[in-house]
Amino acid sequence: MTDAVDRKEVDTRCRIVAQAERFFRTFGYQKTTVADIAKALKMSPANVYRFFDSKKSINEAVGLQLMGEVEAALLAIADSDAPAPDRVARFARTMHEMNASRYVTDRMMHEMVAVALDESWSIVRGHIERVDAMMTRIVADGIAAGDFTVDDPQQASRCLRAGLIKFCHPQIISQCAAGDPGPDVDTMVRFLMRGLGYRGS
Amino acid sequence: MTDAVDRKEVDTRCRIVAQAERFFRTFGYQKTTVADIAKALKMSPANVYRFFDSKKSINEAVGLQLMGEVEAALLAIADSDAPAPDRVARFARTMHEMNASRYVTDRMMHEMVAVALDESWSIVRGHIERVDAMMTRIVADGIAAGDFTVDDPQQASRCLRAGLIKFCHPQIISQCAAGDPGPDVDTMVRFLMRGLGYRGS
């Protein structure tokens, strides 16, 4: 296969994913069919099936792309030179804001998220593990710099992530928007940072 | 109305709730009708509607009863003489175990929980507020005894509860059962107690 053909294949795949996302967002996951996506792109359903064997696979590709954008933003924070406590706070706030805008503001996205959580857990788990790895790196930096006093950066970062579920998990963000008497993300981060042994404010 | 009639009314209401719970558990919320519940109790649907104006109201009564059992167990822990850090740990573990056994082991209960979270948030919110109030009391005791160093027991207990969502929220317990690389409840409680300023182990 030549490079030009390769590029065309990648391009077609991207167009399918982008079109699927638009339809999921506008009409919902259940009401969108592979035939709808194919028609909008002026191609045959058979051509879509050359790239994705099922609507579930398309959903996974859409999910990977949305989660990938969040991961790119988080990676920039994890890699920055800021002190670890600042990075933890920005990391949490960014995760909260991006997940809220991606999955929650848009009522139609709930269906897509629910299907992904139910049928494609390994995809979600991959995202969680990549986020955990970035957080572990920040926590380890904070331990090295004397900001945090925990022993095990991996375990601590998993506790940190678990403690942020209210602010990161699409279904929970959405339920809490209905009126949860809980803390806001900055208050929660300060609380969790004390869990890391941080003595600053 | 005489006491005997009152008692009979209360008894009928209880039987409707108990029968509804059995059906929700066995056949699922969606597939159970008010007519099914009435028939099993050898009464007319109209008689069921004298007590509950909709299936949603029956669901709320079932939910209140299930949550009430959890609250009773938690209240016994909140009221006990044990040191606050021990009570926090038992409180979290009990909440986790009771919610897991009530809502998660039983696949059919998911539907009921999803409907309640979606349509009856005020009922769920009431439960959250009662749990928060018990936790606030334990945290305040811990501050008074010098175990915890936080200033605001209410805000701290809300952070504590938010930090335990992974272990208490039926949908999250169920998703995590599919394989989440996170901490177990005891590790998480130790982490969160450091957030309260606890220096013990």
Describe this structure in words.
2 copies of one chain form a homodimer. Chain A has 11 helices and no strands. Chain A starts with a helix and ends in a 6-residue tail after the last helix. In chain A, 76% of the residues lie in helices and 0% in strands. In chain A, 38% of the residues are buried. The first copy, chain A, is an all-alpha fold and 201 residues long. Chain A has 2 domains: 53 residues, Orthogonal Bundle (Arc Repressor Mutant, subunit A), CATH 1.10.10.60; 141 residues, Tetracycline Repressor, domain 2 (Orthogonal Bundle), CATH 1.10.357. The interface between A and B is medium-sized, with 33 and 33 residues.
List descriptors.
homodimer, 201 residues, mainly alpha, Arc Repressor Mutant, subunit A, Tetracycline Repressor, domain 2, 11 helices, 0% strand, elongated
Q: Order of SSEs of chain A, N→C? A: HHHHHHHHHHH
**CATH homologous superfamily designation of the largest domain in chain A:** Tetracycline Repressor, domain 2
Q: Provide the β-strand percentage band of chain A.
A: under 5%
In the CATH scheme, the class of the largest domain in chain A would be Mainly Alpha
Shape of chain A: elongated
So how many helices of chain A? 11
CATH fold description of the largest domain in chain A: Tetracycline Repressor, domain 2
> Radius of gyration of chain A in whole Å, from Cα?
20 Å
